[in-house]
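Structure tokens please, single chain.
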Amino acid sequence: MSSVALTYLLKFLPFLSWAKHTTPASARQDAMAGLTGAIIVLPQGVAYALIAGLPPEYGLYAAIVPAIIAALFGSSWHLISGPTAALSIVVFTTISPLAQVGTAAYISLVLTLTLMAGLFQLILSLARMGSLVNFVSHSVVVGFTSGAAVVIATSQIKNALGLDLQSTGNFILNWIAVADNIIATHLPSLVIAALTLATLIVIKRWRRKWPNMLIAMVVGSAATQALLLTSWSGVSEIALVGEIPSQLPPLSTPLMTWDLLRQLAPGAMALGLLGLVEAVSIARSVATRSGQQIHGNQEFIGQALSNILGSFSSSYATSGSFTRTGVNYEAGATSPLAALFAAVFLAIIVLLFAPLAAYITLPSMAAILLMVAWNLIDWHHIKIIYRAGKNEAMVFSVTFAATLLLPMEFAIYLGVLLSLVLYLRRTSQPNITALASGRGAKKLVDAQRSNLPECDVIKIVRIDGALFFGAVDYVQTTLMAIPQKHVLIVASGINFIDLAGTELLANEAKRLAAKGGGLYLCNVNGRVIKPIIRNGHLSTIGKRHIFPTKALALSTIDAKLSDHSCAGCENR
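Here you go.
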């Protein structure tokens, strides 16, 4: 097989590149890491399904088939895909206004949303848009996940208090409903939730390597069974998660109609974009420790196929899981084979032990989700964002508030839009520095910083930044405010110029020439001179007004202006 053919084969079947390096020893390491991952995802999958408004088994289904597909067709050695808290809350807030939570119609819409999100991701991957995730700034991700954490916690307060309230994705309405019914708090449910939460905190503090969620879930369920043996009134009213079917993920058929496509398109695009951001960010984070190079576009393909095929196997939207990926790496995983082992072990657990889920209490799961919500809030990076400046703080605050108050898919778009607006605002005002020469100095320096006088006849400025359509108005206003008739622009700091930029220089050259002066350019690089020639503005500016160096520009202009009013001054 030729090298070109092999390259294309590995591109479409990337698992061939690591499968050939698998040894019995590495397979054993991956198997142990996979078993650890299967144990961890058991309580997480059930919890995330409840966040998404789905029966608990759907959270486990989402950790089987999608995890296998993402591992086979992604580029990361350690990324573990499956249900996540952020995606679960987007699914819930997108579908809950359209169908009653937990019903067959609701599940059908969720599967359709998952398929649409996967198709959106596949389109991005085919268009080689792997760098698109770079436009979603870190402040947007932190703001969204923090807001999602508050929404998750809010939605689980009613389960922790044992209140029978209608589920809604609206942050304000949830708290109003809880406040109106707080007097009806079910004390046995509150006790179980508090005990589960205390178990989580103690284990996380003193035994960090133990599966704290699984242990807390068992403790909460065991405590409930113990309370049932007492005469405490109302114990029998503690809500249970319900029995999980002992079966592998069944085949499913998402509905696809034009009306559904129009209704779900905004949510599907937000879900797909957020899933890609999560997966690529987590993969790159682990890759910095493992020394692996991540191919963003290949990750796009892996995530897209996992969601597309997952929607036909009763799985809802998935992405990379930070917790399970970190545990997978720490457990010694050497390849994506660990993700395959984790999915297989989870399938075995579902087949053998699913009936035990009937004893899991809803208050216990609420406590686990409250801990998940707390862990989603990245306090460390929030502090860094607010120290970084008002722009980053504004992006975070707006995204966070929008996540609480607006439909969640629009919160992501709003955060991205605000990031781009602030970026364009910064780039639309390139730095324009007035220059002067010191007494006896051979180079130009910042006139204001060095407190040196400028020439009365010629203004020397340096432009640092892009001279594009968004910056033209600012630069033109600055140049027109210069009183001197002769202007020399040091162009070494111009990193990009478009048609609007070259037109600006041509118009300024004509304006100054009409006043009896001139516009001059020096230190012009190829990124500037080529667009000037290509756009036909070289003759207007004048070949003799463009110089390769500052020294040649100053000597030529000085000779031309030998009789100017400040001739003989020490700063010429």
